[in-house]
Amino acid sequence: MTVSHEILQILENTAVATISTVLRQKGFNRVALHGPRAVTEGQKRIAGPAFTMRFVPAREDMTTALAVNGPTSPRAVLEKIPAGAVVVVDAMGLRSAGVFGDIISARMQMRGVAGLVTDGAIRDLVGMKKLEWPIWADGTTAPPSPSEFFCADTEVAVACGGVTIFPGDIVVADDDGAIVVPAAMAEAVATEAYEKDRFEEWVYDQVKGGALLDGLYPPNDATKERYAKEKQ
Amino acid sequence: MTVSHEILQILENTAVATISTVLRQKGFNRVALHGPRAVTEGQKRIAGPAFTMRFVPAREDMTTALAVNGPTSPRAVLEKIPAGAVVVVDAMGLRSAGVFGDIISARMQMRGVAGLVTDGAIRDLVGMKKLEWPIWADGTTAPPSPSEFFCADTEVAVACGGVTIFPGDIVVADDDGAIVVPAAMAEAVATEAYEKDRFEEWVYDQVKGGALLDGLYPPNDATKERYAKEKQ
Amino acid sequence: MTVSHEILQILENTAVATISTVLRQKGFNRVALHGPRAVTEGQKRIAGPAFTMRFVPAREDMTTALAVNGPTSPRAVLEKIPAGAVVVVDAMGLRSAGVFGDIISARMQMRGVAGLVTDGAIRDLVGMKKLEWPIWADGTTAPPSPSEFFCADTEVAVACGGVTIFPGDIVVADDDGAIVVPAAMAEAVATEAYEKDRFEEWVYDQVKGGALLDGLYPPNDATKERYAKEKQ
Amino acid sequence: MTVSHEILQILENTAVATISTVLRQKGFNRVALHGPRAVTEGQKRIAGPAFTMRFVPAREDMTTALAVNGPTSPRAVLEKIPAGAVVVVDAMGLRSAGVFGDIISARMQMRGVAGLVTDGAIRDLVGMKKLEWPIWADGTTAPPSPSEFFCADTEVAVACGGVTIFPGDIVVADDDGAIVVPAAMAEAVATEAYEKDRFEEWVYDQVKGGALLDGLYPPNDATKERYAKEKQ
Amino acid sequence: MTVSHEILQILENTAVATISTVLRQKGFNRVALHGPRAVTEGQKRIAGPAFTMRFVPAREDMTTALAVNGPTSPRAVLEKIPAGAVVVVDAMGLRSAGVFGDIISARMQMRGVAGLVTDGAIRDLVGMKKLEWPIWADGTTAPPSPSEFFCADTEVAVACGGVTIFPGDIVVADDDGAIVVPAAMAEAVATEAYEKDRFEEWVYDQVKGGALLDGLYPPNDATKERYAKEKQ
Amino acid sequence: MTVSHEILQILENTAVATISTVLRQKGFNRVALHGPRAVTEGQKRIAGPAFTMRFVPAREDMTTALAVNGPTSPRAVLEKIPAGAVVVVDAMGLRSAGVFGDIISARMQMRGVAGLVTDGAIRDLVGMKKLEWPIWADGTTAPPSPSEFFCADTEVAVACGGVTIFPGDIVVADDDGAIVVPAAMAEAVATEAYEKDRFEEWVYDQVKGGALLDGLYPPNDATKERYAKEKQ
User: Fold this and answer.
1) Looking at chain C, which residue has its C-alpha nearest residue B197?
2) What pLDDT, in 10s, does the model give residues C45-91?
3) For the residues C156-178, what does the mean pLDDT come to?
4) Which of A15, A135, D187, E166 has a C-alpha 20 to 30 A away from that of A198?
């Protein structure tokens, strides 16, 4: 199932917090990732189909050579990641090594990959920030990936930050964190959340101007009418 | 028990670290909250009487409607919070939803509420920061409050960050975190801590100027005399 | 075993992430500290021999007087720390009190101590940052050290951030965290890691310029030759 | 809302695991307590209305005298607990002191209280076991209750083991743990779960006798018919 | 790679602790699972090829029907598990639902499956114990599997208890826990560990008889000679 | 400071829970160890002077040979432990390897060592239990000690289960856990706690016989008099 560029654009212009509320109203509570945080506060929001990578713990018979150069190694995999994708790395929440450093990330960025979301840590923070490539991770550490894990699979269902993500699901991430929008729901969620987000921005301004919440948020009919009028 | 505006002013000009030391000298070790951190480093220190809110986990028979609009819902409660109060939310340390977002917070700010302290997370980070309203929380996340909890009670003793806070206790918070000053001790603590804080600033400058700690900190009589003279 | 100033200089100019990779290639996986993070992002990298302090939990028969002024108290100890040393405090990962505040730290800085690395927290964040003295810690908190622990020993093997550090081992720390280089390996690691670090910077630039990783990183002979030529 | 003795009897004869499945089928996922375990494996299953106690952390101005003898102290409260009730203690998951010891528990037992469920620990394990009074707790420890907490409220909504329990909700507990059945659902859940439990016992025997699961569990019409016949 | 029945028999007669020591001597430190414990102390040791199942978190669009009856559901999978296999369930360490209950387990037992190892919890403890089928899990809980997760894959590399297990690796488990022996090493490890285990039993008896450890353990030549003689 | 055999005998006949209460009344709250639990429920209570061992994390330049045979290795140390001592191992709470197995423990038992208390795990559970030697640990695991740590020091102040223990402090342990009685307080605590323990046993029987707590526990004068009379 492919989600159109238009839908992705709308999601990219919609707050993750609002998408979370809309998904909740549709019965989805297990979609917000716990762990990944914006590495640079204020980095741009991203929305794209997930390209998933599943890491498992290092074992002494998985030689570094295999982990670094094998068929599921980051080096081998990254040339297959489509432009616009969000790379999602299930690192089992382990933060004792970095899933990627600045060189691998630079190459992903050059290929047009939208960004990285992981429940693990990254390394090479200085080089990472210089890229100005959006990353959501659970901290920074020095050791290289093969110290702690290797990539066992790509493009399978993964558990990242306590949430299941299927390849092709839409991942949206901003300063409030990352969320998965199941591919089949992307269109319905995008439109509704975008509208809700605009309305909440208007409410925010009303409140800053002195308005009470009663009747405003959630809105009664008068409020809805006033909003409709002002937004014309 | 009401604490005077003068005392609150003194506490607002006293480092939480120093208040912690003075409370410890008076036998109080269980007063510093673990979890809440300044959302914006360098945001202004606050001191005010606690207005407490006790959250409990969401349950499927607590409808969103009830959580969002019931008598203890944030919307219903916030118009009762007195200006100058510090809102203290016991979120049981759960960080999987935000206790408040930017709209509720904007309204609190408009009402003159001094700030928010919670052992949970907040949401809408961008909007929250735009308010320039001081918040201490344990992280940021996307899901809305009803996803994870609802407010069961207000103005009762709560456990926040491992510390018991009674309504009306004075909460002081700065870049080192938040602390509770039991209302009955506020006056004694304020004066002593303020003086100690001034002295420590002077010591800091002495040390930066090359002084040894011996005899200076803790001070011997000569140091005390010198400090008294210089401070005239 | 003393490590020369030249070696320390080289390490100070080498990324901790790269040192981690080189140590791993030499069979060392248990050398990166988990917990200590740079208190100020972008603070200068440090490299120096460890001066270790071992904290144990407070007990009611360890009076504050003894903890604050006894033979292993920070005040007594700090005048013995050699210039250039990195103070390593094993705080057992406890973050409920600050191991040091700004006055003790100011004195260490004045004595020429290179910096502080601890798996505990610090306090007096504002004063600490004003020092512009590099600190790696696991957070900030208000309570003073004697609330939670006291220094039982100095210059013994300690466990900090899950890693054993012997007095005199070299500790290097930057934005990716802190690592211990066993003293006996410092020379071998320094040279190799420095060279590798330079090479990786060159690779990073190549990738930013559009190069593929294949043959570049890890490098094949052609790449090695080209790098050698360009670096002349 | 009062739940009849008959319903409680049925629940007492129904596995908590099965009740959990039925509640889930009715849309309730946040009802199983995480933390409380049977202190003695094989102790009898209990089912009764919750009598809730809310503990908050000890603070130095809550004297032991007040904690031990005040109006919400266990001593004062326990004579008010009705026979048949399940005492639910929200200990905030703290296991560093025992919520109750053997003397308080003996008195509860004498009063006909059905049992104790807590996300904290107990103390006096030897005396506790001698009572043969069913207890679900998260471990055993030596320190007395006032070391760590005191009872702030009784008969309010509490959070125990991550679940909200209102006074009068039905708590059922066995070797698989404890669950809350909202009072309003007790009747519907009891009947359905009891029947399901009987059916699953029959299935278990079929499987032990060599049956395949296909068509048996979940059952097809033939299985249902056969079960109905055999159970006559 | 298939491991012979003889090798499995030898491993089944060798303590996991001793296998751990031998694997460590061969350079393998990441092979002991953290989390799974024997559900019944003293249950028989098992050794068999791993049949792996990978669970991921529940999501609201994974209907119970799919989780319970889909192609990777336990029901569908279990008829494919070969006799003698050890079922290894990667439950991501989540203990809020049981991976299996007594009915699924009874069927596995009937099929000749050697036992179950999981870093999650089980449910139906009473029925589970009645089976006398060996299980290693991280606790017991009431909720059914679909409450928290579903099986995404079988017979892939999994992370269980912090250790990577490939399908066909040999898993050995006893009262000290579970360990993975990479299939390629099973023969070498089995023989060496079995011999070491016998020797350690002999040492244990010597020590109980009053012998000192010096020269005995690790053994000097005299000890080795004496052991060889006695064991004839 | 040496504590007499008589005092140790009294402590050995006094519940740890009661000792905890008495220490608390004397101002000591940081004396109960969190983590160590009785390996065999009902094993005999022990009381003896602490012989402390301090473990630190394994590092690749600490060869197994050194860890196993060096001057602070268990083998070298154990012949120096005096009969009657309680061995206290600070394992930093790490449970990924066993601090000791059955052979080392058997030798300690033969030497008359009273028992073992550790915040780490043990291994060789079957052999350990066969010894019937009292052990308090935080679980069981397979890997041998050098996998994770080595002994850096003996007979120094250690942190075990969050509590500082000095060599020679008295450690008492039973089914409720382990506690440290500072050597200087042993006599005062022993007498008082023993008497209190006897009184509480009497209270327990009264309550089982139907008595109310009011006036009984804590006792009023009439109760004290009655107890004095009955105990003659």
Assistant:
1) C124
2) 999 999 999 999 999 998 766 666 778 888 889 999 999 999 999 99
3) 97
4) A135
For E5-184, CATH gives 3.50.30.40
Of E16, E177, E217, the CB nearest to F103: E217
- What residues in A contact C177, CB-CB < 8 Å? 140-142
**Are F144 and E17 a contacting pair at CB < 8 A?**
yes
Q: Rg of chain D over CA atoms, in angstroms?
A: 19
- Whether B67 has a pLDDT exceeding 80, the answer reads no
Asked if D214 and D35 count as a contact pair (C-beta separation under 8 A), the reply is no
- Per-residue three-class SS string for chain B: CCCCHHHHHHHHCCCHHHHHHHHHHCCCCCCECCCCEECCCCCCCEEEEEEEEEEEECCCCCCHHHHHHCCCCHHHHHCCCCCCCEEEEECCCCCCCECCCHHHHHHHHHCCCCEEEECCEECCHHHHHHHCCCEEECCECCCCHHHCEEEEEECCCEEECCEEECCCCEEEEECCEEEEECHHHHHHHHHHHHHHHHHHHHHHHHHHCCCCCCCECCECHHHHHHHHHHHC
pTM, entire model: 0.97
Which residue, among E41, F220, A72, F119, has the nearest Cα to C57 in the 3D structure? F119
Distance in Å, alpha carbon of D196 to nearest chain E alpha carbon:
13
Residue of E11, E25, E176 best to disrupt the F interface, most CBs of F under 10 A: E176
Question: Has the ipTM of the complex gone over 0.85?
Answer: yes
**pLDDT higher than 90, residue D63:** no
Confidence of residue F66 (pLDDT cuts 50, 70, 90): low
Domain range list for chain A: 5-184, 189-231
Residue F17 has a pLDDT of: 98
Q: Which of E97, E99, E93, E98 is nearest to E162 (CA)?
A: E93
Give the residue numbers in F contacting E (CB under 8 Å), as ranges. Answer: 68-69, 75, 78-79, 95-96, 98, 101-104, 106-107, 110, 123-127, 139-144, 146-147
Contacts A175 to B, Cβ<8 Å:
125-126, 140
Written as six digits, the tokens of C99 are 């191991």
The confidence score (pLDDT) of residue A1 equals 67
Chain B residues whose CB is inside 8 A of the C121 CB are: none
Using CA atoms, how far apart are residues A135 and A103, in angstroms rounded to an integer?
Answer: 14
* Contacting partners of chain F (3+ CB pairs under 8 A): C, D, E
